[in-house]
Amino acid sequence: TELVGKKLGLKVDWTEEVGYEDIFTGLDSGRYDVFAGGLWAGATRAKVGYFSTPVFYSVIKAWGRTDDHRFDNNLSAINSPNVRIATIDGAMEDIIAKADFEKAQQVSLPQLSPFSQNLLNITSGKADVTFAEPSVIHLFLKNNPGTLREISPNQPLRIFGNSLVMKRGEDDFKQMIDAALNEAVFSGEIDK
């Protein structure tokens, strides 16, 4: 975001920390111009906001306890009333759980809860699985080695582009942001 601002000659003013459920309300009310935390686009979200060109992509996979093999190479087994999915309200694991595994129970945390609490809910036995990108899990495993594993390595649940989010209707602003992001991606600055 700082790089985009620099390329466009704009000063970035970091105004507030926002939960997933409040992103679009804040954009619509003008509290901020961009949600810069990186958000995955989806059809529902695209109805209420503009998404920039993705800066990078995330692969979402299912994760569970190391000793639990009920779902090995059978993600459909998660869709059972006996399974508990660790989620945070409004976050992507919540959306995936509701869309793909509606029969499963959710062990839900409120907005702005640390994602590590989701993972602790699994390691403590309060929940069975969650859905996340590998980098998030690997950070957790540095402090909690051997507690979680990828359930089905060859079956990603989703692949998402990480984008900046803007208010709908601001076409010129979106085009300007996209141009700066494309320049940064294609020049290799983002990779650096």
- Pattern of helices and strands: HHEHEEEHEHEHEEH
Fraction of residues in β-strands? 15-25%
Report the average pLDDT across residues.
94
Q: Specify the structural class.
A: alpha+beta
Highlighted features:
single chain, 192 residues, alpha+beta, six-stranded antiparallel β-sheet, two-stranded parallel ribbon, 7 helices, elongated
Describe this entry's structure for a reader:
- The strands form two sheets. Strands 1, 2, 3, 6, 7 and 8 form a six-stranded antiparallel beta sheet that branches.
- Strand 4, helix 4 and strand 5 (105-109) form a beta-alpha-beta unit.
- Helix 1 crosses helix 7.
- Helix content is 32%, strand content 24%.
- It has helices at 2-8, 23-29, 43-46, 92-100, 115-123, 134-143, 171-186; strands at 34-40, 49-51, 56-65, 84-88, 105-109, 129-132, 148-150, 158-167.
- By secondary structure, the protein is α+β, with helices and mostly antiparallel strands.
Secondary structure elements and pairings:
Blueprint: H1 2-8, H2 23-29, E1 34-40, H3 43-46, E2 49-51, E3 56-65, E4 84-88, H4 92-100, E5 105-109, H5 115-123, E6 129-132, H6 134-143, E7 148-150, E8 158-167, H7 171-186
Parallel strand pairs: 4-5
Antiparallel strand pairs: 1-8, 2-8, 3-6, 3-7, 3-8
Helix pairs in contact: 1-7
